[in-house]
UniProtKB/TrEMBL annotation:
NCBIfam families: LPXTG_anchor (TIGR01167), para_beta_helix (TIGR03804). It comes from Candidatus Altarchaeum hamiconexum. This is LPXTG cell wall anchor domain-containing protein. Residues 2-132 form the Right handed beta helix domain. Keywords: Membrane, Transmembrane, Transmembrane helix.
Length: 160
C-alpha cells in the first residue's frame, strides 16, 4: 500500500525499486539515466499499478517485472533503454497503452517463464528485435497463454 507519485529520479542505481510489494501505485514519475532499471517490481510484487510514468535512457530496462503477477502497466513510456518493458517469470499482468521505442534490444519482452499476460494497444517502434502481432510490436520467446488485443472495425476487441 505504497504510493510513489510525481518524482524525478535520475542517475541512481534504480529509479524506483519495489520488492515483494502489493497494492501499491506508481504514478506520474520520471526515472531516467539510472544504472539499472528505471522502474522495477521484484520478487512476488502483485496487484500494483504503474500509470503515466516515463523511464528513458536507463542502462538495463525502462520498466522491469521480475517474478511478479497481477500488475497493471498503463500509459507508460520506456524509450532508449536496453529493453523497454521486460517481464521475467511474471504472469497475469496487464500492459495497456504503453510506448517502448528506440531500445537497444526489445521494445516489449516476455521471457519463456512469463504466462497469461494481456497486451492491449501498446506501441514499440525502432527497437533492434521484435515481432509484429496485430499492430503490437513485441518479442515473445516461448511465452505461454498470452493475449494481444486489437480493435475491430465495429469497435469490438478481438483476442488472438
Amino acid at each position: 500500500n505504497i504510493t510513489v507519485k510525481n518524482l524525478n529520479l535520475h542517475n541512481n542505481s534504480h529509479g524506483i525499486l519495489l520488492v515483494n510489494t502489493t497494492n501499491s501505485k506508481i504514478l506520474n514519475n520520471t526515472a531516467n539515466l539510472n544504472g539499472y532499471e528505471g522502474i522495477s517490481l521484484h520478487y512476488y510484487s502483485s496487484n500494483n499499478s504503474l500509470t503515466n510514468n516515463t523511464a528513458n535512457s536507463n542502462s538495463w530496462n525502462g520498466i522491469y517485472l521480475g517474478s511478479s503477477s497481477n500488475n497493471f502497466l498503463t500509459n507508460n513510456t520506456a524509450n532508449s533503454n536496453s529493453y523497454g518493458i521486460y517481464l521475467g517469470s511474471s504472469s497475469n499482468n496487464f500492459l495497456t497503452n504503453n510506448t517502448a521505442n528506440s531500445n537497444s534490444y526489445d521494445g516489449i519482452y516476455l521471457d519463456k517463464f512469463s504466462s497469461n499476460n494481456t497486451l492491449t494497444n501498446n506501441t514499440a517502434n525502432s527497437n533492434s528485435n521484435y515481432i509484429i502481432i496485430f499492430g503490437v510490436i513485441v518479442l515473445i520467446i516461448a511465452a505461454y497463454y498470452f493475449f494481444v488485443m486489437r480493435k475491430k472495425k465495429k469497435g469490438k476487441e478481438e483476442s488472438k
